[in-house]
Amino acid sequence: MTDFYAIDSALSEEERAVRDSVHRFVDERVLPIIGDCYVEGRFPRDLVPELASLGVFGANLPEEYGCAGLNNVSYGLIMQELERGDSGVRSFASVQGALVMYPIFAFGSDEQKRAYLPKMANGEIIGCFGLTEPDYGSNPAGMLTMAREQSDGSWVLNGAKMWITNGSTAQVAVVWAKTNGDTDERSIRGFVVPTNAPGFTARDQKGKLSLRASDTSELVLQDVHVPADAVLPKSAGLKSPLMCLTQARYGIAWGSVGAAIACYEEAASYACNRVMFGKPIGAFQLQQARLAEMLTEIVKGQLLTLHLGRLKDAGTMTPQQVSLAKRNNVSMATDVAREARRLLGANGILAEYASMRHMANLESVYTYEGTHDVHTLVLGQAITGLNAFQ
Amino acid sequence: MKMAVCIKRAADMETRFKIAANGTSVDETGVKFDIADFDGFAVEAALQLKEKDGAGDVTVISLGPDAVQETLRKALSMGADKAVHLKADAVPADALAIARVLADELKGGGYDLVLFGRMAIDAANQSVGPMAAELLGVPCVSAVSQLTIANGRGTARRELEGAAEILEFPLPAVVTIDEGIARPRLPSLKGIMAAKKKPLEVKPAQVGASRVKITKMELPPERTGGRIIGEGPAAVPELVRLLQTEAKVL
Amino acid sequence: MANTFAFVESRGGELRRVGLEAVTAARQLADATGGGEVHALVIGAPGIAAKSEMIAAHGADVVDAVEHPGLALYSPEVVAATAAARIRAGTYRAAFFSASAQGRDLAPRVAAQLGVALAADITAFEASSDAMVVRHPMNTGKVIATLSITGTPVLLSLRPGAVTATRAPRTARTETIAPAMDPASARVVPKELLAGNTAKLDLGEAPVIVSGGRGLRAPENFKLVEDLASAFGNAAVGATRAVTDDGWRPHTDQIGQTGRLVSPDLYVACGISGAIQHLAGMRTSKTIVAINKDREAPIFKVADYGVVGDVLEVLPVLTDAVRKAKQSH
Lengths: 390, 250, 329
Known about the structure:
The complex is a heterotrimer of chains A (390), B (250) and C (329). Chain A has 390 residues and is of the alpha+beta class. Chain A has a four-stranded antiparallel β-sheet, with helices on one face. The radius of gyration of chain A is 21 Å and the shape is globular. Chain A has helices at residues 13-40, 47-54, 72-85, 87-107, 110-121, 239-273, 285-314, 319-343, 355-367, 372-384; strands spanning 127-130, 146-149, 155-165, 172-178, 188-194, 200-204, 216-226, 275-276, 279-280. Chain B has 250 residues and is α/β, with parallel strands linked by helices. In chain B, helix 2 packs across helix 5 (189-195) and helix 3 (95-107) crosses helix 4. In chain C, strand 17 (287-292), helix 8 (299-302) and strand 18 form a beta-alpha-beta unit. Chain C has 329 residues and is an alpha/beta fold. Chains in contact: A-B, A-C, B-C. The A-B interface holds A 2-3, 13-14, 17-18, 21-22, 24-25, 28, 53-56, 59, 63, 68-70, 74, 78 and B 30, 70, 73-74, 77, 186-193, 195-196.
């Protein structure tokens, strides 16, 4: 995509180099296979070691844990480029980095950090994040999963989680559970649970029409026994998993721009090549209007995430600022994808073209990590001070 | 082995080029730059030789304005160990002038092997490497498509028109790298971070007189195309007819 | 009065056409600048001197031949030193080489030894009062530069085919001279010349090229491309970077930005989408035919004749039709 608003000039050389490397990786390794993976409903697992060597997992975590130690704008650019490939691939990286490595980094003991982070950075251990439940999505405070402390300090976990990315491929699950009664959200704590523990089962959810190139699973914990050191010692209350979500949502605000860019570039190229009534369809006003709208929304989205990244690097970013970006960018990306699909005409329904795949994927992205509506109320509350959630 | 790779910063050849207002160069607005194609192969070849040996040192060198530092850092992020920026306002059009600057830098370096890309993808002279070798007084094999180094000697294959030749040579030597040896690796994100800490020395370059001057740059005539003459096997008779009567190539 | 020099490339005891192109170019320059002789140099194994007549027939006034058993193969250091010595010994305005695989190795060495400028891979040349003015494609042929080169002599290497070798018979003085250095003392030692499949035309010389890409779907299907090339009779087979990277065809068959640059009379692109780096290699072909099942493929924008269809279905039918067309002539 031509850098229409010269945003590259606002990036450092390092940030551009990071973006270019992941961009090339996606072009060479993801795009050639992802349409087939999507149709077949399979996550391209073979790419995991390559993604790991590239350094994409936990890229903004410190070098001492085997991570790339990049700043948050670079992290965002990675997510943007991965999702330019596919939301399912970016979801894998988001989960591994922001929802598994991050909580271990933020709430874990030194032993846990040393035991898990380097191996997760190099792809040896894949993790998943168990927060959402069949009856508790937008309202994680209501979760039913319980962790009962035993006399020797170990824990027994019971519960079910749903819509868990990487669930069936993960060796480790970061499971959030209440430790004191089913109404006490302040008792929520995180547990690092090996997925081969007796009583732990993960089953892929079938029949998805979105995020098909991604493993989405149900997790069932039935008297799963974990040792005392499985708890993330600094985790305390709902605030802990929400902090993880803020990390992931930040990445998604960037990622959705990548999906929009993919659709826009495909549409723009098609418009210049596809001839109808004696000229390229890009010569007709209605198509130009579509493309102009797409470009404008993408540029706005890029500027939004760039500034957000600078705030995050300065340490001043708030979750409400992330909500604004996630909400806007995912919504605009769904519009861009849909309009691109329409511009492509009949060809646009084929898996050979990316737009409809992105369009379908983005419906999940619209819903997960805080639905569009939830983020609307986050902003509403930030503006008015009044809680409209219930 | 102590190796040096001379690299050039060149425009992305996918660009739709426009001629600059001065009429003698290409308009660089909005153009992306990177390590010139063949030079990227040379960097990769050097890195692979270093990895195969399990030891070695790769220095990348580039002549040009400050912008070439980004290109040098790209090579560092691929795994080169140090970089030297020979600072000059512009890269001269005279390949011998370039070769003289590079030879001056390479002279005291004690390099076992100096690699170049076969040619700069933009200037397309394919001259600097062999010229530099002559100035250094070392053996040179150019446009190599296969290369093995063992016990201080090298064996190289060069592709010719409808044939190939094999040559042997002693180190130290200059070798220019063609297609077929290696594709440049993707810099890992850690590599990008590490590049910032690797030494990048800036030295002013003494560029001598250039006897080559670009007096005009122009775009070639546009190709007109886009004529679809038919679909599937049914189009064949018409195609053959056109090739015979219109294009007169059959 | 300055003379003009031409290095005449040979291989395996035979002159190469590009060598005669260099002689023709020298003759053209000598005639255009009003007098002066054309001095040619040819180097090879004993017997190469017999080719002097052919060289003279293309316009050389003087032909120097170097014959040595150690020079059956191209020995870069010896050839470069000999050419440099020969040029140094005379008064030349310009010295022509070929921008062939050999010439692109040789000419820069000679230029550096003489300390003069080299205009490489030129497509046109002209002498002005104080400079040589040449044209040279740059940026994979996307821009054409006009360059002015000063100094004497100016070395020039000609893009193969830029000049057509033309007979211009002269009565030439021929001489056999010694190489400027002992081949046995060369550091770079030529070991072997691997002749390609002699039945195959080289991509740089074939009037027709039939080329295949990913649209062929599997390496075995390249047989269809080869069949079409055989039907033409004077065609070479090329490939895209995608299929050479995947190992379907050797790297030497690759046409593109970092592969071969070709300019045949007819280029038939089979199952090739037309990536920019491929177009860079064949864009200057006189006539381009494209066969691809994707109507939006970029190749169609540069094709003179496009056929939208499955290349696996179209090729056999086309091969048959070409064979019949050739037979009826």
